[in-house]
Sequence to fold (549 residues):
Amino acid sequence: MNKTLISTLILVITLCVNANAQGLLQEKNKFTHQDTLRGSITPEREWWDLTYYHLDIKVNPETKTIAGKNTIQYTVLKPNQVLQIDLQEPLVLTKVTQNDKALEIKHDGNAHFVTLKDQQNIGETNNVIAYYEGKPREAIRAPWDGGISWKKDNNGNDFIASSCQGLGASVWWPNKDHMYDEVDSMDISVTVPKGLMNVSNGRLKSVIDNKDETITTNWHVANPINNYGVNINIGNYANFSEVYKGEKGDLDMNYFVLKENLEKAKEHFKDAPKMMKAFEHWFGPYPFYEDSFKLVEVPYLGMEHQSSVTYGNKYMNGYLGDDLSGTGWGLKFDFIIIHESGHEWFANNITNIDIADMWIHESFTSYSENLFLDYYYGKEAAAEYVIGKRKNVRNDRPLIGQYNVNNEGSGDMYYKGENMLHTLRQLVNDDEKWRQILRTLNSKFYHQTVTTQQIEDYLAEASGLDLKGFFNQYLRSIKIPVLEYKVEGKKLNYKWTNTVDGFVMPIQIEINGQSQWILPTSKNQTLKLKSKNSKVVVDRDFYITVKEF
Ligand SMILES: [Zn+2]
Fold:
């Protein structure tokens, strides 16, 4: 879906210029021509709006190859005769047709420019069929590097899965590989050897026996979906399901696991309906009722594939048995079930236009883990968990990456980002209001692709707070604000240091056990105390550094 492209571009450009003018972004790295083709809204992408894909492929585990086609349907927004399709080497785009006529293709690395013969008229809906084949890049460290994982289960059956976050879906199928334009709906047909089955996104419409020792599974996705959310998972799966009574009515929750893990999964996946209950409370209805919710076992850790969240946490609590917070609270739930499902709201419902803004996906989703704890174990437990994760912050680069070159910001988008949001919750200082802000965020930007600026503007407006300096500080700089203070007799002196221009943030402190707000600035301020030797404690829910001077 093309969302007011021009105003979006202007926002992105303004944001870039502002941030750079303030010297807050990292120095420009060297990016290649290929990075620009992949990461920008090129003229050959801009003129058409994706409406529908039918990906129809055959997967051959023996040769580790894929062959097939993708029907790409689109609406013409403005005149142009050249269309960009992305497909990464070593896969080969063999042919592109429109109305049964083969078209000329100019290959430029992983971008392919197709010249259309038929006149493209504004408002018309047309399609091209992109044929491809080959041996896709193999994922060695999935999901971190991406590609196809060709593995075996303990019984020697093929166990195959795709993962492609960041790298892009064009690593395994031809598409318009940019986040800004989500397809409105999609069919996924995958042919595999008999004895295996493929689980993709959406709902299973049919299984066809091809009489040549293969079967085809046809899946339909009824909602807009981002490319990297599309996936294939092929294995000797067992299946069980339940109906969850949710905010929008009955939600089908289906679980696909290796046969050997069926009994374990029936017990362990009880975290899934628990997750659904907590997240619908905090974020509003699950955004894809029409497509159901699935957890699908895969031979790697896991990924937020839309309506088919993939799972490989080995049926352990925590992150492969570890607690990322070091507080013990992280062992109360299966990290992958909770975190990857949190992405259904932040990544799949609300999607970044440019992956430079990926903090929108990861900061909110990491933050969702503590809201899960909040729902079941209370506010204190949740706070301990999110505060505990601060030790993992590296402060190497800002959370926002470089725009238009397919570049992500720092990995701090997880731990620093969630602590930024935890701090914002303190500033809002009204838990019910905060919950409504998060729910409205999901309804306002329902099934949309967005910029950081849109999220910032909404949060400022909904909270009634001036957050410009706050977001510049936490998103665009690596500086953590320092509260310097000193108790002298009956006086408390305090100020902010290590802050960016325009940083304004009140903070809660306790003086002799009595809570109160102060509004430090970069200039020294003095508060009169009732007694000498008062004990001052700064609320640790705020993600800052505290220093006595
Ligand atoms: Zn994530």
The chain has a mean pLDDT of 94. DSSP finds twelve helices and 29 strands in the chain.
